[in-house]
Design a protein that fits this description.
With 247 residues, this protein is mainly α. It has 13 helices and two strands; from the N terminus they run E-E-H-H-H-H-H-H-H-H-H-H-H-H-H. The chain has a two-stranded antiparallel sheet.
């Protein structure tokens, strides 16, 4: 067990266990494509060696048009017809939306993203303004497709698409967490004051919430008919290529 103490946020205890990836052929084929084809072209970074101004520019672009996190997660909850997974998704909504939404102390993931942006030189007023702007055309199409997919697909397909982001992150959890610690040194050298807040967004996604990834694989493994499996495969591939700009 590893104890993560984060000033001003919360103390987390987590265990990055090995993700159980089903042997179902379509899931295995997706994983083989992801690691042996896609990431040969778009390598997955474990750390971030970019200069501060480039990070700030990317964060400004990401904030434009607002955060859609709760929209697609909420869509998944609404379409889910399985009681067990509906309860799990409700727990995930609390994780994403912050336990402060139900009387707890932990902030939302969008706020963690803001803390990271503030460390790169943005401020609250700038981020508020960016979120009120229209998203850029590519982002608008991407976000529209993503919300639509999670609203209209079979719930198992919607859940399965998290194999792309959370599933890939969980498989590289140890390397990503090591990269966060390397970045702590870079940020300290740049004079960033609150390093814990600056890095909490990446800590949260790389280590603490890996259980979300397992839920996506478990839901994907429930898909038995070939037609729905093909829908899930195509949705995962589209999501993977849509996320290429993040690598």
């Amino acid at each position: 067990m590893t104890e993560v103490k984060v000033g001003g946020y919360a103390t987390e205890t987590w265990k990055a266990e090995e993700i159980n990836i089903p042997t179902t052929p379509w899931i295995q084929a997706f994983e083989e494509y992801r690691w042996n084809v896609f990431h040969k072209v778009y390598p997955r970074r474990s750390g971030d060696t970019r200069p501060l101004d480039q990070r700030a520019a990317d964060k400004r672009n990401a904030h434009k048009g607002g955060d859609i996190n709760h929209r697609f997660e909420g869509e998944r909850y609404l379409i889910c017809t399985d009681k067990e997974y509906r309860r799990k998704q409700l727990r995930k909504l609390v994780d994403e939306g912050g336990e402060i939404s139900v009387g707890g102390q932990k902030v939302s993931h969008p706020m963690l993203s803001r803390w990271e942006s503030y460390a790169y030189g943005l401020n609250k007023e700038e981020v508020d303004g960016l979120e009120r702007e229209d998203a850029n055309p590519a982002g608008l199409i991407s976000r529209g497709w993503w919300c639509y997919t999670n609203r209209t697909s079979d719930w198992r397909v919607a859940f399965a698409t998290s194999m792309v982001g959370e599933g890939g992150t969980a498989q590289l959890s140890k390397q990503l967490l090591a990269g966060v610690e390397e970045d702590r040194k870079r940020l300290a050298g740049w004079g960033v004051q609150d390093l814990d807040r600056a890095l909490m967004n990446r800590w949260e996604h790389a280590g603490i919430d890996v259980d979300h990834a397992q839920m996506s694989y478990d839901a994907a493994d429930l898909i038995e008919d070939p037609e729905t499996q093909e829908q899930a495969r195509q949705a995962c591939l589209l999501r993977l290529h849509d996320q290429a700009r993040a690598y």
